[in-house]
Design brief:
Layout lengths: L11 H11 L6 H11 L2 H14 L11 H14 L2 E4 L7 H4 L7 E6 L8 E5 L6 H16 L3 E4 L5 H8 L5 E4 L13 H10 L1 E4 L11 H12 L2 E4 L7 H11 L3 E4 L10 H8 L3 E2 L3 H12 L23 H10 L7 H8 L3 H13 L3 E3 L5 E3 L1
Length: 373
C-alpha cells in the first residue's frame, strides 16, 4: 500500500478510512493529525479509538463512523459530482495546507483547477449598503483581471456581490454546510453559476445543515485559502472580523475598506484600519501588497505534516496520567507548561491529552492551549 503522504493519490481504501476517522466523534483536524502520527495510519487509529476513550475516562466510546456510513457519503458525493481531496494530494490548495488545523479532507465540486491560482478573500456585511456591494464587485472584477481568484462565503450582501463579479475570472465559495444544503437557500442559483467558473468547497459532511458555530469554522478556510482578506463592510460584532482575526493568526494579509463613521457597518472596518490593516480604495492597493507574495513559493508542508510512521509510545503509567490530569482545569494552559510541571515526557503528555480528547473531556483553544471541559 502506498505511503499516505505521497503527493499522488490515496487509494480508495485509504480515502474511506480517512473519511471514517474525520467523521468520528471528538476527532477534529488537529486530533486527526495527532492520531495519524501516533498510530501510523487511519485504520489503526480507528481501531484504537475505543481504548483511547476508555483510558481518557469516557463511560462509553464515542460514535465511530462506520464503513457503511462512509461508503454511503462517498457514493452520494460522487452522484453530485463532489470529489474528496486529501491533505497532501496534488489538488489540495497549497495555502490551506499551511494552516495548523487544515482539514484532512475537503469536499470539492466544480472546476478544481481554480484552486491552483492565487486567491484573495473578499468578505463583509450580509446587510450590505448599495455602495459597499458595488465596491466589492468592482474590487473582485479588477482583481480577477489581474489573475486573482476571489474567495468568499456565499453569504448575502458583500459575499454574493464579490462572487457574482468574479464568475468570469474564477471564484471559490466556501460552504458552512454540506454540498446538498446550500445556505442561504436563495443562493442555490448563484452556487450553480459558480460551478461553471469556479469551485464550491467544504469540510462538512454532504448532508450537513449549517449551524451558527459552523460559520467561524468556515471562515478559517476562507482566510486559509487566501493570500489575504479584504473586509469591505463589517459592524463591531461581525463574522467578518472573526475572519480577519483568523487571517492574522494564519499569517495572511488583512485589508480594510474605510467607511463613514456614521455607518455602523463601517465600525469594524474602521477599527481594523486603526489596528494597522492596509487601507483599500482600489484594487491597486491590494495588488501592491500581494504581488511580491505571489512570487514567493509557499511552504510545501504544514508545520506538523502527518508522518504516517507508527510511533506509539508506551501507555502512560497511572501516576503519570493522574499527574497530568490534575494539572488541567477549565482555564486553558500551554502544553509546554504541562510537560514542565508534570515532569513527564512530551510523548506521555501528548498521549494523555489524546486520550482525554477522544473521551470528549478536552477543549482546545485556537491558540493551541488546552483545558478540561
Amino acid at each position: 500500500m502506498p505511503n499516505e503522504t505521497d503527493k499522488v493519490r490515496l487509494t480508495d481504501e485509504q480515502r474511506l478510512d480517512w473519511l471514517r476517522l474525520i467523521r468520528s466523534v471528538n476527532v477534529g483536524p488537529r486530533t486527526f493529525r495527532t492520531l495519524i502520527n501516533h498510530f501510523g495510519g487511519a485504520r489503526r487509529a480507528l481501531a484504537a479509538l475505543p481504548d483511547l476513550a476508555r483510558r481518557g475516562g469516557a463511560d462509553r466510546p464515542g460514535r465511530i463512523c462506520s464503513v457503511a456510513e462512509a461508503e454511503t457519503e462517498i457514493a452520494a458525493a460522487r452522484r453530485l459530482g463532489v470529489t474528496f481531496v486529501a491533505l497532501g494530494e496534488q489538488d489540495y490548495p497549497v495555502r490551506l495546507r499551511m494552516i495548523d488545523d487544515a482539514p484532512p479532507l475537503i469536499a470539492v465540486r466544480g472546476r478544481i483547477e481554480t484552486l491552483h491560482h492565487a486567491m484573495i478573500a473578499i468578505v463583509g456585511s450580509r446587510n450590505a449598503s448599495a455602495a459597499g456591494a458595488k465596491f466589492a464587485a468592482e474590487l473582485a472584477r479588477d482583481l480577477g483581471r489581474e489573475g486573482f481568484v476571489t474567495v468568499s462565503g456565499l453569504a448575502r450582501g458583500i459575499d454574493a456581490a464579490a462572487h457574482r463579479a468574479s464568475l468570469a475570472t474564477g471564484t471559490v465559495a466556501v460552504l458552512a454546510g454540506g454540498h446538498d444544503h446550500i445556505y442561504p437557500p436563495e443562493h442555490a442559483e448563484l452556487a450553480g453559476q459558480i460551478l461553471e467558473h469556479g469551485v464550491l468547497l467544504t469540510e462538512m459532511p454532504l448532508s450537513w445543515e449549517p449551524r451558527g458555530r459552523d460559520f467561524p469554522r468556515r471562515n478559517r478556510l476562507i482566510s486559509g485559502l487566501s493570500l489575504g482578506v479584504v473586509i469591505v463592510e463589517a459592524a463591531r460584532r461581525s463574522g467578518s472580523l472573526i475572519t480577519a482575526r483568523m487571517a492574522l493568526e494564519q499569517g495572511r494579509e488583512v485589508f480594510a475598506v474605510p467607511g463613514s463613521p456614521l455607518d455602523p457597518r463601517a465600525e469594524g472596518t474602521n477599527g481594523l484600519l486603526k489596528q494597522g490593516a492596509t487601507l483599500v480604495t482600489e484594487a491597486a492597493d491590494v495588488i501592491a501588497v500581494l504581488r511580491p507574495i505571489v512570487g514567493q513559493a509557499a511552504p510545501d508542508q504544514p508545520a506538523e505534516e502527518p508522518s504516517f510512521e507508527p510511533a506509539v509510545p508506551d501507555e502512560p503509567a497511572a501516576d503519570e496520567r493522574r499527574c497530568v490530569v490534575a494539572l488541567l482545569g477549565p482555564t486553558p494552559v500551554e502544553i509546554d507548561d504541562l510537560v514542565r510541571l508534570s515532569g513527564a515526557s512530551p510523548a506521555v503528555v501528548r498521549t494523555v491529552l489524546l486520550e482525554l480528547e477522544i473521551a470528549g473531556r478536552l477543549a482546545r483553544q485556537p491558540d493551541g492551549r488546552i483545558g478540561l471541559l
